[in-house]
């Protein structure tokens, strides 16, 4: 039991969470999906974010779910991300059972909710696999190539990169509050005074982080403007030069064709062998 709790504590440690966020934000470069063109990945993700909503056949949904599990496995997604997703699914299913029991309903209510959970989980796995394998810069360039405004595409990329920095900064501010603060002498029943003290610090730590983020963002904007960021966005030649490295190759086309064939096989199997 102690070893299990130690493993849980290791997974939820600040350093582990920070590394998982950095790995997710900066993309895994040694996977199969990471070697594909980012535009193909976005199209593939949008397709699998829509396809599950057209079906209620449980065989088809199960097939799509297994396909996404395989894609997620080969994408080397962080264990922390998988753990958080699993916890959300377990708690969601548990809450469904409780609500169904309180309302006096049986399995006939639980099954439709289970189908909805399977659809959402399939989409979540697709998003995790794609965005873990995509560098923020490539994601931003893909949005730019689709005609999205340059300021918006850069903002998405910037938010991707700044997330691990914000997490580390929040952790430092939180620890500085703990070092300078005074814990309650009497922790109360089940330590509720100490828990309230930690919650209060957690809320207060947000204010310095927001101010530091605003300052950092202004510095970034000023640095970009000094290099002519806005001027370059309005120039088609600059945009063409920036996106020149993006090329759709045989591997990208083959990936799309194989994905389409797998979906067709899953649909035909579901039609012939419905659960």
TrEMBL record:
The keyword Electron transport does not apply. The chain crosses the membrane at residues 36-54, 60-77, 82-103, 109-131, 143-163, 194-211, 253-270. It is a multi-pass membrane protein. It is found in: Membrane. InterPro entries: ABC/ECF_trnsptr_transmembrane. Signal peptide: none annotated. Keywords: Membrane, Transmembrane, Transmembrane helix. Pfam families: CbiQ. One of its GO terms (cellular component) is plasma membrane. This is Energy-coupling factor transporter transmembrane protein EcfT. It comes from Iocasia fonsfrigidae.
């Amino acid at each position: 039991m102690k070893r299990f709790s130690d493993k849980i504590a290791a997974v939820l440690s600040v350093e582990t969470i920070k590394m998982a966020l950095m790995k997710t934000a900066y993309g895994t470069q040694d996977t199969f999906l990471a070697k594909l063109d980012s535009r193909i990945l976005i199209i593939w993700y949008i397709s699998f974010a829509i396809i599950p909503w057209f079906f209620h056949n449980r065989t088809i949904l199960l097939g799509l779910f297994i396909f996404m599990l395989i894609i997620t496995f080969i994408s080397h997604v962080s264990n922390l991300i998988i753990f958080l997703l699993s916890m959300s699914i377990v708690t969601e299913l548990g809450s469904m059972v409780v609500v169904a029991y309180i309302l006096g309903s049986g399995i006939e209510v639980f099954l439709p909710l289970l189908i909805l959970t399977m659809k959402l989980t399939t989409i979540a796995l697709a998003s995790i696999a794609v965005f873990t394998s995509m560098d923020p810069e490539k994601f931003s360039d893909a949005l730019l190539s689709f005609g999205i405004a340059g300021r918006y595409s850069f903002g998405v990329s910037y938010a991707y990169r700044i997330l691990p920095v914000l997490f580390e900064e929040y952790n430092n501010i939180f620890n500085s509050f703990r070092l300078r603060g005074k814990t309650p002498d009497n922790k109360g029943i089940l330590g509720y005074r100490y828990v309230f003290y930690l919650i209060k610090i957690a809320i207060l730590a947000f204010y310095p982080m927001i101010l530091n983020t605003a300052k950092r963002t202004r510095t970034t904007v000023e640095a970009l403007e000094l290099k002519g960021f806005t001027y370059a966005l309005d120039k088609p030649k600059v945009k063409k030069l920036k996106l020149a490295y993006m090329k759709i190759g045989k591997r990208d086309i083959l990936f799309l064709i194989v994905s389409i064939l797998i979906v067709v096989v899953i649909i035909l199997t579901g039609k012939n062998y419905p659960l």
